[in-house]
Amino acid sequence: MTRDDQRSDGMPRSPRDAVQSYLQALADADADRARAVTTPAPSTALLGGDVLRRQRDLAPITDIEVSEPVSDGVVSARYRIGDRLAEVGFRTVAAGGGWLVSDGVLELRVAPTRVPHPTLFGTEITANVPVYVYPGPREWGSRDPYVGAKDADGQPFPVGPQPPSTVRLDPELTAAGHAAVSEAVQRHLTYCAGSREPDAAVDRPGCRQHLNRSAVPGTVRWTAPSDTTGLFRTLSTASVTTVDVAGAVSWQATYTPSYAADTTRTAVNDDYLVGSVDLTAKPPLFTEG
Asked: Distances from the Cα of 213 to the Cαs of 95, 193, 254, in angstroms?
């Protein structure tokens, strides 16, 4: 926007100028300018520069083309946001001798969710309490380091104005959550590998690997499974901070057979590990069963 397109106080002179200024402010991640050319939102908590810059990192706005108003202050605009083409109309209103975009800020609510302390761009939000954001990508999360959030409906982010909407969030394990589960399982397997018995539960309570061989008690040497990538991890329906784990694992055991006390044998013991990880434990704890 040129100097001739706005008044000395920065107010756009026409509906078209308002939309052009608004879109350029979004493209530049200029939160102050974007707020100056839109009608005031009830809350600006998510309308600051940090959020706007993150939206632009995720989806730059380019190729802005703004038409003259078609009717009643509605201005058509065409632009790219990320890899998507937006062709939308913006409403404008006269204000203080200038013009403002009246639908440039979106209102949304989050439905009640299992996500612990849900966040949008790192700001904690409350179910059914409206928040206000600019069109563009959204980053959902939670205050819990192990549990994140995703849009349950998987809808593309809005590229322009839309009516007030409600978002449903589902919990999901974060990268830190996946790592915590793997580490908890590995700690348990390492503990269980310390058994010296054919039935590991005898000297390692909570362990369930079992050698289906006739072995002299106290002579078994277990080697824990080295590959646990095939284990399935699912957030429990009972508790969002509990992860159900299940899958095939393979133990190796050397032992002295009871029928040949002067020899050593090696066996591979295929097993199916079932249990859960309590993410609230410090450190997270895997329990079989």
From this structure: 86, 17, 11
For tokens 């409600």, name the residue. 166
Q: Are 124 and 138 contacting, i.e. CB atoms less than 8 angstroms apart?
A: no
Mean pLDDT of the 195-221 span: 96
CB 138 within 8 A of CB 80: no
Residue 69 pLDDT: 83
Hey, what amino acid is at 19? V
Threshold 0.90, pTM exceeds: no
pLDDT category at 7 given cuts 50, 70, 90 is very low
Interval 210-250: pLDDT, tens = 999 999 999 999 999 988 888 999 999 999 999 999 999 99
187-196, Cβ contacts within 8 angstroms, sequence gap of 24 or more: 187/283, 187/286, 188/275, 188/286, 188/287, 188/288, 189/224, 189/225, 189/228, 189/249, 190/224, 192/222, 192/224, 193/222, 193/223, 193/224, 194/222, 195/220, 195/222, 196/220, 196/221
Tokens 């329990």 -> residue: 287
Task: Residue count of the chain, please give it.
Answer: 289
Average pLDDT score over residue span 164-175? 97
Strand order in the sheet with 131-133: 131-133, 106-110, 165-167
Contact 234, 200 (CB under 8 A): no
CA atoms 63, 122, 232, 234: torsion sign = negative
